[in-house]
Amino acid sequence: MAKNPISIEVLETLDAIDRRGSFAKAAEELNKATSAVSYAVQKLEDQLGIALFQRQGRRSVLTSAGRLILVEGREILQATARLANKAKEVATGWEPRINIAVECHQSYPAFFSVLGEFLKAHSTVEIDVCESVLNGGWEALEQGWVDLIVGSPGPVPLQKGYRALPLAHADLVPVVAYHHELANIAANAEALQGRLAEVRRVITHDTSVVDITRSAGLGSDGKHFYVQNIDQKVEAIVAGIGVGHLPRQRIENQLNSGELVELALYEHSTFGHYLAWKVSHKGQGLRLLTQRLAAVFGEM
């Protein structure tokens, strides 16, 4: 197989000529003689059997074929630059990718704001986010599917080699749709308790696959309606299918408009929520990211 004549060096040469507008200025930027730049271009043209530049007055302008090579070549130059940066970061303790499972009750605007600020400072690190529910986050961490969990409920599994930081409690609100039968007695705690056993609960599936799944909130008695995520749960409750707990910050508009009605049920979660990762994970990116997340979501 013939050797590919398009090298990183010649792509850098074409890029410099196009940006600077002449062989001489490109040579100055590349710290080469003008004759060396001209020779590199002529050699590539001879090897490919095409013209890459044409003269327009005093400027050297790319032909359509030359433009194609440069446009796609710049993508290669960017990719090689990213590869070099990633290699340097890995060599100095920076991981190229961080996988995160975020509990569905967390504040997504705050969460993604932290990730955005982190990526501004460390743009070569890739982030992969998935949503977890109840045991699902802990299972994902144990199985190595994610490097970090944000907001998974306790208790923290023992003897797993986890570092866990307690987070501020999410403000979960028991609600129904304004047209649901319970809405008329929403402020009457005693009456509500007497009716809960007969009312359908809307429940988000535990994302655990291997471990024993669990549910939380209004108990396990009565009729159930299962959904996959919080967005589906919001829509199911708004539709009047049943009752359930939702994060206040996710439904403020519906509460303010009266579309959803808060129930006078004062149940509190027994367990806290945690930011957790394996102590064996020594990546610099994970260390800095957990510090940023703990500063925003940590217990006050």
TrEMBL record:
The keyword Amino-acid biosynthesis does not apply. The keyword Transcription applies. Keywords: DNA-binding, Transcription, Transcription regulation. Residues 6-63 form the HTH lysR-type domain. GO terms for molecular function: DNA-binding transcription factor activity; transcription cis-regulatory region binding. It comes from the Bacteria. InterPro entries: LysR_HTH_N, LysR_subst-bd, WH-like_DNA-bd_sf, WH_DNA-bd_sf. Belongs to the LysR transcriptional regulatory family. This is LysR family transcriptional regulator. It comes from Marinobacter psychrophilus.
